[in-house]
Structure formats: structure tokens, C-alpha cells
Fold:
Amino acid sequence: MPTRMRCLGLAAVLTLAGVPCQAADVAAIVGATVVHPDRDLPSAVASNTTVIVSGSRIEAIGPASSTPVPAGATRIDGRGKWVVPGLIDSHVHFFQSGNLYTRPDVADFNAWMPYAKEVERNKARLPATFKVWLASGVTSVVDIGGPFWNFQMRDAAVRSPAAPRVAVAGPLISMVDRVKLDLGDPPIIKITSADAARALVRRELERKPDFIKVWFIHQKGDDLAAQEAIVKAAGDAAHVGGVRLAVHATELIVAKASLRAGADFLVHSVEDEPVDEEFLALAKKNRALYCPTLFVILGYRYALSNTWQPTEAEWRLADPQILAAMNDLRKIPKEKLPERVVKAMSQPVPPKPSAIALQNLRKVWDAGIPVVMGTDAGNIGTLHGPSVFREMEIMTQAGLTPLQVLRSATSNGAKTLGMERAIGTLAPGKLADLLILDADPLADVTNLSRIHRVIKDGKVFVPDELMRSVAAKGGAS
Structure:
């Protein structure tokens, strides 16, 4: 059967193996409602619009009545559909799977599932993990820290026919050890001096990271000034190498120390107390990005108390292998369960989002500091792919509108990758990263999960076919 006939109605469609097949160089989405998240209402919404995609880029976008469809272009009927930029998750970790066994430093299941086996599974499962991101409408992700094999993972994503665009950081420069994660290529490395920080940054810069990441853990009795000096040494070395500094800092004093040390990206909420004017001024001075990661702690609490349940979107779009593993607590003998899990299961308490984190998100947004959506996917209970829909729904609980949440996941997210000129918005000349939706994302942010088609670099992917590929062949093709 000719290629063009196999790809009826689309510029490129996935085969069941998840490989896009090119049918035409030009495609036209005709009659859709286009949402421009970088604009305010009412100009953010343009009904009855035509989008012309040529090769990997958007060639034209405008009213259907005055935007001609090129002769020979493949038409995609956009009537009753919504078009938005592809989603961007600014905080993920591919060395973690999201299942129960992925963080033995938090919950040690080695007596049941050796961590070395889990890591090998994660490496072998990368093609499937890439596909669940695409199926969930996420066309770009930022892996903000992991082992040195993170750089090989980034290369694998570039080579894959079905993968999001991936930016990476290497091993985390840390104030504390995490020896249970060290299998010879540790994702977290304890650093005790400025010289050691600079040395690790040099090793990472050889591999051209997109960020240098510091895990700034400040415990009672620690010398905050000495820790800040380590962060500054790492940041200065990163900046000399042309790379931005990302910092895990969840307490206000630590976040402010990070910003004084030159942080460009705060990868979590400030969770212990309300942000103050000093914090806001420092963030503005650095032009820093702020990533709330509101669900990840809840994910741990749900999973380790055996109360985690998949959402409707996760049933459709998560890796079925990971979904199955989330039920393992019911079959693991009690004597092989970590003590903290036994305790959590005996006293399950429905978790709620942090009120302070929600308050701080709204205050940071209102101050004009760029907020970027990120899930911390890969941590226990926060699954790669459809966890973005949990995260974005919680963001609305802070008082952000669906349009603002969409902005955090598109035009703001593009700032995390340093690709504002190429992705995150819909305009002629931009890369053709966009979603065609079956429901209005501004009526309900969860409608972002109702994905008809995903287009990344001009290639069209069918979510259902991606997921059938993952289920049928383990994502290995």
C-alpha cells in the first residue's frame, strides 16, 4: 500500500510500532480554535483558524477565510477542535520510574526488588517512557539531574522516532550523601568544598549540560554561609561555561541563599513559610524561573500508604508496566516492606497540597516572576507523562486560571529550555510543536488531557497508537 494511503488525512501518522511515517511536506489544520497562551483574553483565543505546517515549522496561522491552504497540502479538519502549543515539563528525572522501587533512599524495597534491577529496567524502558510523554502532549522536558548516563539518555531521545525534546543536567551537587542510589554512576554526589564543586562542574561541562544542578539540603546545625559558598562556586563555574544554575531549595532562607549565589532556576516551591519582598527582589534580579512541583510530595504519601489510585488520564496514558507496579504493596510480604511503609499503611491520611506552597505560587506569579510547570516526574507516585495533568489541576487551586497554567506549561516553559524563539508559542517560523485537543482547555485545565493529535517538529503522533505500541512491544521499538 502506498505511503500516502497509509497516512490518510494526516501529514505524518504513527504506525503501531510508534514510528512516524511522512505523507506530505505540508499539512493544514483548518477551522480550529487556536489558543495563544502568551496573550491575555480575549486576544488569546482565535476561532475558525487555519494553521499551515511545512516541514518542521509553522508556515502560516490566521483566519480560515483569509489563510489559503497550499495546493497538495494534507488537510486536518479542525472544526470542534482546539490547538495549543506542545506542553513542556520543566522538571523530570529519567533515572527514576515513578514506581515504588525507584528511590531506596526514601523507601528501601531492596529485600523485594533490588535497586540495580530497577535501574536497568529504567534504562531499557526509555523508548516507552519517551512515548508516554508524547502521548500526554508533552513535546519537551527538562531532566533536571541524574547520573552521567543522563547524557546518553538525551542522545537516545534525539535518535528516537518518538520522543520529546530533552534538556538535561548531570549529577546533583549535594550537601548530603545518598549512598543507596550509588551503583557506580551516582545521581547525587556530596560536595564539601568550593573547589570540589568547581571540579564536578568541569566534569559535567565536558558533556555540554543544559543546567548545573545543586541539591541544597540545609539541616539543623549546618553552616548556611559555607553552603552558600559551595553553591556560588558551582554557579560561577557554570556561568563561565555558559550554563545556567538550577537549585533545589525548599525553605525560604535556603532559596534566598541560592538566589544570592546566582541561581537561575528554583526547581521547587518554597514550602516552609511565605515568600517575602527580599525573595521576590532577588528572583527578579536574577530573572529566575520558579517551578512549583506541587503534586510530588502527595505522590509519595499516596503511594507509600497504599492509597494511590490512577486518574482517568493515567489509565489511558501512563506506562502500563508502572501502573501495575503501583499495586505491588498488596502482594509484598510484610517482612519485606520498609518500616516507614508499614507505618504509613497503618495510618493512611488523605494528603492535601501545601497551603503555603499554593500561597507562594500565587504571590510569585503576581510579582511577575516566570512560573514554569514541572512535575518532578519519576519520583514515587509521580508518573512520567500524565502526571502533568495532576500538577496543572493543583496549580488552579492557587488561583491561577487555566490560561495562566497553560502559559506556565508552554511559553514560560520554553524559557526553561532557552528556546523562547523556537517553541512555546504558535507563530509563523516557530517549530511545529502543538496539540490538537477534543475539548476546550480554558473551560477546564484537565481538558488538556483530551488529545486528538500531538505534533512535534512537524511530525504527527496519535496518542492511542503510541500507547498500543508501548503495551504491545514494551516500548522497545
Q: What stands out?
A: The longest strand covers residues 26-35. The radius of gyration is 22 Å. The chain has two domains: 3-86+424-464, 87-298+349-417.
